[in-house]
Amino acid sequence: MMRLPRFRFVSPRSVAEAADILASARAGDAMIVAGGTDLIPNMKRRQQTPATLVGLRRIPELRAIRRGDSPTIDQAEPGTASDVGLAIGAVVTLTDLIRALSELRSPGLDGLRQAAAQVATPPLRNMGTIGGNLCLDTRCNYYDQNYEWRKAIDFCMKKDGQICWVATSSPRCLAVSSTDTAPALMALGASVTLTSTGGTRTVPIASLYQNDGIRYLTRAPAEILTSIRLPRLDRWRSTYWKLRRRGAFDFPVLSVAAAANVRVDGTVEEARIVLGAVASCPLESTQAASILRGERLTDERIAAAAERAAQPARPMDNTDFSLVWRKRMAKAFVTYALRELRGDDMRAERYRIARQLL
Predict the structure, then answer these.
(1) Judging by DSSP bridges, how do beta strands 224-230 and 199-204 pair with one another?
(2) What is the pLDDT of residues 59-69, one digit of tens each?
(3) Considering the entire predicted model, what is its pTM?
């Protein structure tokens, strides 16, 4: 049985109080915990061993979903999220987020709802939060083992060692980004708010990540991710496709988030395609999106965009399935996502893939 190391738990009532605690702690001594579905298992494996955990669940403002300028989503004026925007507190559980997005019935938010609904299992979604999923630790077959296993083969670069066992000549860690919601939010042009004792800053969600398995977040240790803001999504449609071994629980070994602003005549005004789980951060393919801009989603345009989107995918042999097959599936999944944005009924294809991988 893997046991937790000893730690001190504090539960502040405000963001300012939480920021003060983080600022006063020595580097690495304090970490934020919300649902704990990622951090607690990591602590049991001794991948992270903070002396203090700062819980955020008792801070009311971090548990709210707001539409426009309304205090909460329930008090908003009539209308959909697409015409007023949306602000999501970082400690909103994935279950509550799915429920809220389902009630809004906005085609632009379908991709985010699908991504959140495919995270783990219902009990974990009841605990896990949107902020926690965005800050999810990178994963690797050599890193995600217990302490004794990692010690037996010699520790890896990501924790306690000097070498990346995925590619022994690599100068950086190649652990994989496995967050489901980040690609979906990137495709929607979302931004995040980071708060510390030094003030508050808002950055595009793409700027929260960098392609390094160890330093995968640009968020400083003393900063708190407090909210996620979505822009107006008039005429936008979005979708999310996830490749994994089982139909539930598993982390993605490939994900595709796609969103498009489509005019009444079917012409794509703007588009974004983001690949997840193929690098240490989500990868947006701006070149693939440019192929679609100003055009209709014909089979030829979709094929060209899928070919271009799959090119930057460089999956490594540190997750499930072979890297060659995952690379090939990147093109297929982008095709499926764009066909769904066009309006094709892809339910049978989703079911076929799920059955084929069982």
Answers:
(1) unpaired
(2) 999 999 998 75
(3) 0.94
